[in-house]
């Protein structure tokens, strides 16, 4: 099978599986698990093969039919998009094991509909990272958003209202992006990203170009919940069904950050985006504020899942700031943090899923002494917490290190200070929970004879991906050098 065909199968197989789940899974629930896991396992293997071919042979362009761009849809597989394909596939597969058990418990009778949306979302995310057309990027961005709305709305309590708020903010972000693309089309007469990058530098329209850039970036910032455009995220992720949060939280914001990087590097070019120092300085200050405020807001939360949503907001500030440092170390740190934060967030949300499965809540009060009941789960939590803090040799340390180096290189000490402050706040956040879990007294009725406590872990169906993800936090940390040398270095523009 040729690489372009394999790439298409990685994109299409989850979509076909979504159709199969919807047709057959409603009447035969036993079909759901093999269809979901089989399609995502294929995506993992296929994306790894595609990435290997891209690294060996260079960027691959695939066009539908015999027409040439810009008259046809073009898919681009470069080192960055190939890396994102692997990341999306791996996270989706690991999350799906846990999601299958969570959906069985929380959404009885609706599992087929849930996983139909789940698989469509995965297909949409793959399409987002591969499209070479600015308008198709908008279409795919909305497909992923609409499926996210549906997944979140399936939760209990205030989930429907949270999803509605997400819809409002998501629509505003989409409108900003679409207006920016419209300006670009008026200026260049094309929607193909490569053509736009070639034509824009030749134009003498600085105001129109800057306006187009601003609209697109604001649209993406809304979608990724860049502070203070974050209001929709805490409620959306904390009220979503557990299985939805386990997959959406690690991927949605990170894929949107990828889109920002893609737009800056491959559409507008860094020379146009970073022309005005006052703009980059303003964004850097905004990123620093986002980091500190996201971390500070997490301090006031009494629910583990909601606390993690505010940490995600802070992490978005990490990545936006890394990009706008406009230097090699900063961009390296931002790209590396996309991978690392996806795995760290996945690990912690898998922990949340396991605890909710067993005790129905992740309020901080309910975590007292939980290590004695769920030692494997809490050991994985500890590794995830260390990675979020940035303790070596976990992967979180290395991306933070490059971000700090980038901040020093660029003279943006406000960003460096924000990173340090955020890490210190994370120490407070996570060690508070570790203290409760490891040293807190058990609730009445949970003590057994001779002082023993019965282990009450989640099913191995949920523990296996959790253990794998926790181990990956160490493995990816030790693999930072090869990842930078063999992948990320190919992404950094010359002279950056």
Question: How is this structure best summarized?
Answer:
The chain is an all-alpha fold. The protein has helices spanning 3-24, 32-57, 79-106, 111-130, 134-153, 159-188, 193-199, 206-224, 232-239, 242-268, 270-273, 277-299, 304-324, 328-359, 370-373, 375-389, 395-410, 413-439, 460-478, 480-491; strands at residues 60-63, 74-77. It has a domain at 277-496.
Describe this structure in words.
The longest helix has 32 residues, at 328-359. Strands 1-2 form a two-stranded antiparallel ribbon. The chain has a domain at 277-496. The chain has 20 helices and two strands. The protein has helices at residues 3-24, 32-57, 79-106, 111-130, 134-153, 159-188, 193-199, 206-224, 232-239, 242-268, 270-273, 277-299, 304-324, 328-359, 370-373, 375-389, 395-410, 413-439, 460-478, 480-491; strands spanning 60-63, 74-77.
């Amino acid at each position: 099978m040729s690489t372009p065909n394999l790439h298409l199968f990685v994109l299409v197989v989850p979509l076909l599986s979504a159709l199969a789940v919807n047709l057959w899974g409603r009447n035969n629930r036993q079909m759901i698990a093999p269809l979901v896991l089989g399609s995502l396992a294929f995506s993992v293997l296929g994306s790894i093969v595609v990435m290997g071919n891209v690294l060996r042979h260079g960027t691959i362009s695939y066009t539908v039919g015999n027409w040439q761009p810009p008259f046809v849809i073009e898919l681009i597989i470069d080192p960055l998009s190939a890396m994102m394909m692997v990341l999306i596939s791996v996270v989706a597969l690991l999350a799906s094991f846990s999601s299958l058990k969570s959906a069985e418990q929380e959404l009885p009778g609706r599992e087929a509909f849930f996983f139909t949306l789940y698989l469509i979302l995965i297909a949409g995310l793959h399409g987002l990272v591969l499209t070479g057309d600015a308008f198709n990027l908008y279409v795919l961005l909305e497909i992923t958003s609409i499926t996210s709305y549906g997944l979140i709305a399936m939760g209990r309590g205030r989930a429907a209202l949270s999803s509605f708020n997400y819809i409002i903010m998501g629509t505003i972000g989409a409108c900003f992006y679409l207006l920016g693309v419209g300006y670009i089309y008026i200026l260049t007469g094309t929607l193909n990203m490569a053509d736009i990058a070639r034509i824009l530098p030749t134009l003498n329209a600085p105001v129109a170009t800057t306006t187009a850039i601003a609209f697109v970036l604001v649209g993406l910032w809304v979608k990724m919940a860049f502070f203070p455009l974050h209001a929709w995220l805490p409620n959306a992720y904390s009220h979503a069904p557990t299985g939805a949060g386990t997959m959406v939280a690690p991927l949605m914001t990170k894929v949107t950050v990828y889109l920002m990087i893609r737009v800056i590097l491959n559409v507008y070019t860094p020379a146009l985006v970073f022309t005005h120092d006052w703009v980059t300085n303003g964004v850097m200050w905004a990123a620093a504020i986002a980091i500190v405020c996201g971390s500070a807001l997490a301090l006031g939360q009494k629910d583990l899942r909601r606390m993690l949503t505010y940490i995600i907001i802070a992490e978005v500030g990490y990545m936006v700031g890394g990009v706008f440092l406009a230097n090699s170390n900063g961009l390296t740190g931002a790209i590396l943090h996309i991978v690392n934060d996806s795995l760290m967030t996945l690990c912690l949300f898998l922990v949340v899923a396991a605890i909710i499965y067993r005790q129905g809540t992740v309020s901080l009060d309910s975590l007292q002494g939980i290590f004695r009941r769920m030692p494997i789960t809490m050991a994985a939590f500890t590794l995830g917490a260390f990675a979020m803090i940035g303790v070596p040799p976990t992967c979180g340390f290395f991306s933070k290190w490059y971000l700090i180096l980038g901040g020093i290189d660029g003279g943006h000490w406000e960003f460096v200070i924000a990173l340090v402050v955020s890490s210190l706040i994370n120490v407070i956040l996570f060690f508070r929970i570790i203290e409760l879990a490891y040293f807190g007294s058990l609730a009445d009725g949970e003590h057994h004879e001779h002082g023993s406590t019965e282990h009450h872990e989640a099913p191995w169906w949920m523990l296996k991906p959790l253990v794998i993800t926790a181990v990956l936090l160490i493995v990816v940390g030790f693999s930072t050098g090869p990842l930078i040398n063999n992948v990320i270095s190919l992404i950094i523009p010359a002279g950056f």
